């Protein structure tokens, strides 16, 4: 397979992404860029990248049309590519993860392969083409690489977990002390968004994206609301383009110190203008999230992480204070 880029006549972007690109006067440039770097298959380089990962971020939409973001973990090799259009995942969701009930054949899925220590990341979205108790396969619809911006570098090692002690799982409908502490100290989270209308053709699907900032960059605005600065990126506007057409999103916060995992689902809006944006240096726009439901899984991550090496891109960003 040659690395020829996008081989179709129709755009790799859907109407929401194109609308934002057009509004900002960059649509023609982004169409050319998208056709060059977005593919319907995994390059050899990306296949090797996925094969060495020990974790990946996954996004799905449940039966109630709610997006959720999850982390899957396994020894390197748990992700493999039987072909350049197929990714096989041999891993089980963590306890309390909404993903476990939604790995159904025919469902859309998004996946972010990310290596925090090297700040490398590659994305794909596709359709679940097979699934059993221990694994599933994804037929690739779109695949492309992302830049290293705003990723805090961390190394990890596996830790032994007791099979006799199940993590404590708490369902939430508002933020309490534990959730507030995790969110307030976060320098990283992941967001799943989706636009699944058949009219979008090959550009439809689920996107999983990384967001990073200085600790405290996620502002807690009460018991159900978060506000986040959105920094400059690759200008694809996958996440914001999805929100433009479908406000439902899922967030994932990881407590890298204690191993807690916070799964949130709700709705988001993009704030494109106003004084509030200028109060956070580096913000191009803001994302405001309203919680509908969530789960906090205590000490469920079987990984131990080092303290972060903060991204050099953060020097041009501010804080809410």
From TrEMBL:
<protein>
    <submittedName>
        <fullName>Pyridoxamine 5'-phosphate oxidase family protein</fullName>
    </submittedName>
</protein>
<dbReference type="InterPro" id="IPR012349">
    <property type="entry name" value="Split_barrel_FMN-bd"/>
</dbReference>
